[in-house]
Amino acid sequence: MFTGIVEELGEITAVEQLGDSCRFRVRGKVVTEGAGHGDSIAVNGVCLTVVEYGDDWFTADVMEETLKRSSLGALAEGSRVNLERATAVGARLGGHIVQGHVDGTGKILDRTPSENWEIVKVSLPAGLSRYVVEKGSITVDGVSLTVVEAAADYFTISLIPTTLALTTLGIKQAGDPVNLEVDIIAKYVERLLGDRATTADNGITTTTGDSK
Fold it and tell me: Which of 112, 122, 145, 208 is the most exposed place for a label (fewest CB within 10 A)?
């Protein structure tokens, strides 16, 4: 599990094509401190497993499913990436609960700079809009952010100077893809309410607690 608080801006230093998959070599001095084989590190919001590692680098295999569902397939040598280690039990939850399981990709539609912040408009794939609400949480390229405006096919986010300076969201331009992960709580609520409605339609009533 992650919290969407990016620890450092890393770099893809090599991409090895392996048929329907690939292996990334990623430079990141902070996230490799104390790293071990099998550890989880989020790369642009995608949870990847450490295969090999050194003082300031690690490699990770990316399967076909991940390449299809995320923007990682567009990365090349020299690409900058957001990096975050898995959250330790007992650590502060600085952002929100992030699984590192991308739900889809959007595109930067527009950037509106202001004196001390910037409003970024991002396209929203069909099927995800029901999970995105004004003032709710969403993960964009691994960054935990608060939704400013939620529409049927787009949403906006407001980026502070720190986010602009220390993440890829400061350098992405209109047309660039971004990984999106919606709030997992919203998906669980939808599933539970859906099961409840199905049970009611079948004429089955369930209760919880002790029977007297």
Answer: 208
What φ, ψ does residue 191 adopt, rounded to 5°?
-65, -45
Cβ neighbours of residue 167 closer than 8 Å, sequence gap 6 or more:
6, 9, 82, 141, 142, 143
> Is residue 14 a contact partner of residue 20, using CB atoms and an 8 Å limit?
no
Residue 108 near residue 143 (C-beta atoms within 8 A): no
The predicted model scores a pTM of 0.88
**Considering only CA atoms, which of 68, 78, 80, 17 is closest in space to residue 43?**
80
State how far Cα 168 lies from the chain centre: 12
Rounded to whole angstroms, the Cα distance separating 134 from 51 reads: 39
**Cα 86 versus chain centre, distance:** 13
Q: Which two tokens stand for residue 162?
A: 């720190």
Mean pLDDT of 138-159: 97
Polymer length in residues for the chain: 212
| DSSP symbol at 2 | B
Beta strands 104-113; 177-182: pairing state: antiparallel
Q: What is the pLDDT of residues 80-109, one digit of tens each?
A: 999 999 998 888 888 898 999 999 999 999
pLDDT in tens, 6-46: 999 999 999 999 989 999 999 999 999 999 999 999 999 99
